[in-house]
Write a structure and sequence with these properties.
This is Myb/SANT-like domain-containing protein. The chain has 196 residues and is of the alpha+beta class. The protein is built from six helices and five strands; from the N terminus they run ααααββααβββ. The C terminus is likely disordered.
Length: 196
C-alpha cells in the first residue's frame, strides 16, 4: 500500500469534454487535402447552381449540380476526387448549416456578422454542446458564407433570417457600439431593441 499524505489535496477530477477548450473550426471542416479555399470554391459553385433553380440540396443532393461542382473543383485545383468525396463534403456543409441555424434559433445565442463571432454565456454554451458536440465548431468563429449556404440548404425558409443575429450599422456616423440592433430569441416580445 502506498504512503499517502493525509494533508495532500485530492487529485483534480478530469473535466468533461465540453468544458475543455474546443479545437479550432478548421478541425471540424478541413483536412490536409481539403482546405477552406476548396470549400469556398465548392460552396460558390453550389450557390450559383441554387440561383439557377437547381436547388434541391435541403434533403438530398441534386446529382447534376453536385457533379458539376465536382468537375469544376477537380479542374481548378487539379484533383481527381470521386463523387463520394463531394457527397461527403455536401453532408458536412449541411451538418454545419443545420447546427449553426439551430444555434441562432436558440434564445441567448447572438452572432455578430461583421466580426463573425458568436456570443453566448458559458452555461448555455455547455448545454448546447451536450446536445450536439458539433456546436464546438462555432465557439470561436461564426459560419462564413452564410448567405450562400442558406440559398443551398434553406429549402424555402427565406425569412428574415435567424433570430440570434446582431446587425451592426453606422449610418449616422456614430460608433458601431451605439448602433447595435439585437434580435432577441423570445417570439412573443418586440424583437428589435436598439441599445444606447
Amino acid at each position: 500500500m502506498e504512503n499517502q499524505n493525509p494533508n495532500a489535496a485530492p487529485p483534480a477530477a478530469p473535466q468533461p469534454p465540453f468544458l475543455s477548450p474546443p479545437p479550432p473550426q478548421s478541425y471540424y471542416f478541413y483536412n490536409r487535402r481539403w482546405t477552406k479555399q476548396h470549400d469556398h470554391f465548392f460552396i460558390q459553385e453550389l450557390y450559383y447552381e441554387a440561383l439557377k433553380g437547381q436547388r434541391q440540396f435541403s434533403r438530398t443532393p441534386n446529382m447534376h449540380s453536385l457533379n458539376y461542382g465536382r468537375r469544376l473543383v477537380n479542374a481548378v485545383f487539379n484533383f481527381n476526387f470521386k463523387y463520394i468525396v463531394f457527397k461527403c463534403r455536401l453532408d458536412r456543409l449541411r451538418l454545419g448549416y443545420m447546427t449553426f441555424r439551430t444555434m441562432l434559433d436558440t434564445p441567448g445565442v447572438v452572432w455578430n456578422r461583421q466580426a463573425n463571432i458568436v456570443v453566448v454565456e458559458d452555461n448555455l454554451w455547455n448545454n448546447l454542446v451536450m446536445n450536439n458536440e458539433f456546436v464546438n465548431a462555432y465557439r470561436y468563429r461564426g459560419k462564413s458564407m452564410w448567405k450562400e449556404l442558406r440559398a443551398i440548404f434553406s429549402a424555402g425558409d427565406e425569412d428574415e433570417g435567424p433570430q440570434g443575429v446582431v446587425d451592426i450599422s453606422s449610418d449616422d456616423g456614430g460608433s458601431e457600439a451605439e448602433n447595435v440592433i439585437e434580435i432577441e430569441g423570445d417570439e412573443g416580445s418586440d424583437r428589435s431593441n436598439v441599445s444606447d
